[in-house]
Specification:
homodimer; about 350 residues; alpha/beta; Aspartate Aminotransferase, domain 2; Aspartate Aminotransferase, domain 1; 2 domains; seven-stranded mixed beta sheet; three-stranded antiparallel beta sheet; 16 strands; globular
Chain lengths: ~350, ~350
């Protein structure tokens, strides 16, 4: 049975990538061992690492004055790294709270810098909505503005960037490579790998060079952007296997036509699922249409007593990990890059049949 | 051709483990996806995680008053984590320097605590030697004593533990599970995974409960022992695939007879290699016998102009990654748990033949 995995993260990886990883696992390129078992300082891995960086630069058209860092510690690590690297003494940072993850970023940053948090999630006519970017209260002199444009738990996304003189810092863990972005408008972009990039344990940071901290700052080394940049992300042993898998994903993305092609496909996937939900009285999504996430689609059953049955019947039909986040309940379909259109179509077909039987 | 990989790290993993990982990569236990693609909070991964912890507890006989933490950030992350979690305000820590890694730990710790470092590496009669544990100058009131009993670059190891009232903190990255230890004598044991445990990116910390920091301390979350302990190492998404592989290694170790059996096998491997080197004028090791590492065996050729030829001929014979560390030169054979005795025997046979031809 073909299965489709809707897990929010660690999420499914492209089937082609997993097959290549399996083929190469015991004997990478005839070397007699796994890429996982090679020195990060050897020629072979260095080449894998450099190719992955170049492919990412190509995919996102990253300008030359940005460093691409392959780090440990996940998004939570970056929640610390951002204020530790970027906060100026005595200067406040602006934090935009649009959901669970941007709120968690605030709680972490408060350990390391003064900040002003503003909650932009509101309810309008019964729908969850967001304050538009143009209405945010921003301080041009802030150390930086931090936001998370796609919230995986809340299923909410915004696209427009704010206008401010402070550097923009964005947690793109759940949207990186899913749509085209203009990197030059950001100061720092970071992303845990486990949604659109690779396995958990690897974290990407794309940092404008002028924002790197001074040498010799008292930041824990594994969170220090300067050390990572000056040592090609090899000051300490990087998570090499995750880096290799990320490289395979980047090559797969290029074969798919790049980020622009993914954006079109992702729009189709989201339209297909939201479109069906909206015409149904059996299912519902309570996010205002212009703020709906194209990556994480939470939906509720009108009869919540059917939740467990929905999840178990879906699983029996090869539709995995649809149970909603524990903070929200209901269902959630995460439809990152690796989820093919057929996966979403199969889900919609199942939802129709479930509605027909139980509606 | 059978290959043997002598890389110092990321190092070889047991062949059986890699084969099982390959078999399970696309479809773990019939679930229709990889363990890498599953939520860390789902039943399946939670079971994998708990089993790995239990197996490690069994293997090292870890007392119940110790927490086992599966963290991000490698040994370097722990270089920061140890002082951040354990240093008492206004109290100095003792750092023992026996080689490159314990020196690096000092440089990191100086960012976060007052400390007194003492270099115990000395030269005696032309051989590198170490000051015996009983002669260390220790402060019973220190926040902790940090040491690294096996230095991978220097190829030096000591076994005896010091006597002091301060908690012992040991970097066992390169020796954990290679010999039996009495965990109850330590305050904290930590280890990057990429030598004796699994792939790089995962880090183990075994922490005596009374040394956990207070709740709500201003430590970066990914380095906070308390947060990790209170959340079963899942405050942030852990490196799940590395955790799974570590679990397979622990099960393999149990099938091999546990740590005590590995210790015997490791002693045989080391004796076989050092024994041959010592009776040869063509090769030499300059560490005093009682301080020789049983995991990392550096050796020099009398005629250093043959170094490159040695490495390339070894590789042609399936003996991989023997080039010495860039700080030391010569050769280095890392013979962690996963290296079978036959691998060392094959290396010795090759060394004999190389000596016969070029000696």
């Amino acid at each position: 049975m073909t299965t489709y995995n809707f897990c929010a993260g660690p999420a499914m990886l492209p089937v082609e990538v997993m097959q290549q990883a399996q083929d190469e696992l015991l004997n990478w390129h005839g070397r007699g061992c796994s890429i996982m078992e090679m020195s990060h300082r050897g020629k072979d891995f260095m080449q894998v690492a450099a190719q992955a960086e170049q492919d990412l630069r190509d995919l996102l058209r990253i300008p030359a004055n940005y460093k691409v860092l392959f780090m440990h510690g996940g998004g939570r690590g970056q929640f610390s790294a951002v204020p530790l690297n970027l906060a100026k003494p005595g200067v406040s940072a602006d934090y935009i709270v649009s959901g669970a993850w941007s709120k968690a970023a605030v709680e972490e940053a408060e350990k390391f810098t003064a900040l002003k948090a503003q909650n932009i999630q509101i309810k309008q006519a019964g729908l969850r909505s967001l304050v538009p970017t143009s209405d945010w209260q921003l301080n041009d002199n802030a150390s930086f503005v931090h936001f998370c444009p796609n919230e995986t738990v809340d299923g909410m996304e915004f696209i427009d960037l704010p206008t401010t003189k402070a550097p923009l810092v964005a947690d793109l863990s759940s949207t990186i490579l899913s749509r085209s972005i203009d990197v030059s408008r950001y100061g720092v972009i970071y992303a845990g790998a486990q949604k659109n990039i690779g396995p958990s344990g690897l974290t990407l940071a794309i940092v404008r060079e002028d924002l790197l901290p001074a040498k010799g700052s008292n930041i824990p080394s594994v969170l220090d952007y300067r050390l990572a940049a000056d040592n090609d992300s090899m000051f300490n042993t990087p998570p090499t296997y995750a880096w290799y898998l990320a490289g395979l994903v980047f090559q797969w993305l290029k074969r798919q036509g790049g980020v622009e092609a993914m954006q079109q496909r992702n729009a189709l996937k989201a339209q297909s699922l939201y479109g069906y939900i909206d015409q149904s009285d059996f299912y519902r999504n309570d996010v205002a249409p212009q703020f709906r996430s194209s990556m994480n689609v939470p939906f509720l059953l009108a009869d919540e007593s059917l939740n467990d049955l929905f999840v178990s019947e879906a699983e029996a039909n090869g539709l995995l990990a649809l149970k909603g986040h524990r903070m929200v309940g209901g269902m959630r379909a995460s439809i990152y890059n690796a989820m093919p259109l057929e996966g979403v179509q199969t889900l919609v077909t199942f939802m129709k049949e479930f509605e027909r039987v139980h509606g």
